[in-house]
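G., the chain you wanted modeled:
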Amino acid sequence: MLSSFLPASFDPKRPLVLIAGQGIYPVLIAQAVRAAGVPLRLVGFDEETRPDLVNSFPADERRILKVGQLGAMLKALETFGAGYALMAGQITPRRLFKGLHPDLKATRILLSLRRRNAETIFGAIAAEIEKLNVTLLDARSFLDGHMAQAGCMTGRRFPIEDDYVAHGVHIARECARLDIGQGCVVRKGTVLAVEAFEGTDEMLRRAGGFKTDGALFVKTVKARQDWRFDVPCFGLRTLETMHEAGLAAAALESGKVIMLDRAAVIEQARTWGISLLGFE
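Predicted structure as tokens:
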């Protein structure tokens, strides 16, 4: 079985195009797709996609674009004969609004949107991709071994009381429902910070300005999460930011939050004394 997140109709002989943003997330996808023997191509972005990932593809199997060149991206999918596409890795949030290089196709889409956030922008892009008869896959595909698991993943008793965990989960889910963000930091029934446009790391740094003993970082998903994009992730960079901010506990929704290189994250969390809980 290739991945529990793939559609039943998935054909491993058809090319898959990885639309890759920042970080290790698309690297892990590329490794898993190659290991599964699925033909893989790359669409990357200037100043976003890791050079080592780009260089792992032959020149004729990759296209590197500026953020906003939607028409060129769609043309690349056609050129590659894509059967599937998968979006992985964040694009710097501010670049969706400042420093964007929209072509005519992207400009038309942006002008049509009454609300401009990750969900509406990437949702519109997804619709354009699927007009080409290209299936945009669940962004968790091929990463079954990197999902948050239920229980205390760091192997110790989780240090936050159940009632305070439940409070944090409630706040995070309400923020996600209101499309504010997918995370928050709480402490003993008090909300210290919620994630918004600035992203997870900046929220954690803000929370670190308060008293953090007993503080808890919670990461969840939207009630109607579109699994093709904007799936919440937790990796070494976030863990390092927690450590620097003095936060020693995180709760991640199991089976839904991607842990980028889960084994390495858990090992480093143990080293720093950070407890990781998967909640259902």
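The two ends are 24 Å apart (CA to CA).

Shout if anything looks off.
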